[in-house]
Amino acid sequence: MRSEEFGGLNVSRETLERLETYHELLKKWNPVINLVAKSTIDSAWERHFLDSAQVFSLAPQGVRKWCDLGSGGGFPGLVCATLAAEFSPETEFTLVESDQRKATFLRTVARELGLKVTVLSKRIEQVEPLGADLISARALAALPKLLEFTERHLEPGGYALFQKGESFRKELSESLESWRFSHEEYPSITDASSVILRLGDIERV
Ligand SMILES: C[S@@+](CC[C@H](N)C(=O)[O-])C[C@H]1O[C@@H](n2cnc3c(N)ncnc32)[C@H](O)[C@@H]1O
């Protein structure tokens, strides 16, 4: 089967076609429900799809349950679910997005792409604990709030992957007032001022 490089992965033609279909649906729905900032739609392939794919590359092996919080248009969760269909089919995805119209978009994309993902259109604080072994989130909240969400939904021994902008050092030091965790910083391949934080061993101080 033909394959192509995408976000550091050698993806099959089928995966690339799925991502292209998703990209088309994003462009079609965005003017109506603002899934991503209008100013980023022309560069969506890099700003949203590649940016999300790099998160998938940083996930540990053998994830059983991956939960993406505040998924919006599916970044990074639904892109990661698309990649997992090829590279990690045993991983189950749950996307939590309280906005009903965005949740409908996520379900529509999943159906069109033939992906099995669960979309919960509820508030993260009100969803029953999900027992995830990996949590991802982008542009949802500052790190102290993300850690509260993570505490509710992550199993002991699990990891969190958060895309963060240039305020990440300040957020890390604020978080360390109330939390203990191990952390690694990976420079973003799509934005020189951003990083992906991988946190583990998360517990309250
Ligand atoms: C700024 S958007 C980011 C969306 C996406 N992660 C991205 O990076 O493109 C934040 C999203 O989180 C959702 N959201 C915010 N607070 C939430 C909560 N407490 N529970 C569930 N969804 C929430 C909003 O509806 C919105 O779609």
Automatic annotation (TrEMBL):
Cited PANTHER family? S-ADENOSYL-L-METHIONINE-DEPENDENT METHYLTRANSFERASES SUPERFAMILY PROTEIN
Q: What is its EC number?
A: 2.1.1.170
What's the name of the protein? Answer: Ribosomal RNA small subunit methyltransferase G
Q: What is its main location?
A: cytoplasm
Could you list this entry's UniProt keywords, alphabetically sorted: Cytoplasm, Methyltransferase, rRNA processing, S-adenosyl-L-methionine, Transferase
| Single GO MF descriptor | rRNA (guanine-N7-)-methyltransferase activity
**Substrates-to-products reaction catalysed:** guanosine(527) in 16S rRNA + S-adenosyl-L-methionine = N(7)-methylguanosine(527) in 16S rRNA + S-adenosyl-L-homocysteine
Record's Gene3D superfamilies? Vaccinia Virus protein VP39 (3.40.50.150)
Task: Provide the binding site for S-adenosyl-L-methionine.
Answer: G70, F75, I124, E125, R138
Q: What class of enzyme is it?
A: transferase
The protein's location, in the record's own words, is:
Cytoplasm
Of the GO CC terms on this record, one is:
cytosol
What family does the entry list? Belongs to the methyltransferase superfamily. RNA methyltransferase RsmG family.
Gene name as annotated: rsmG
Q: Its biological function? A: Specifically methylates the N7 position of guanine in position 527 of 16S rRNA.
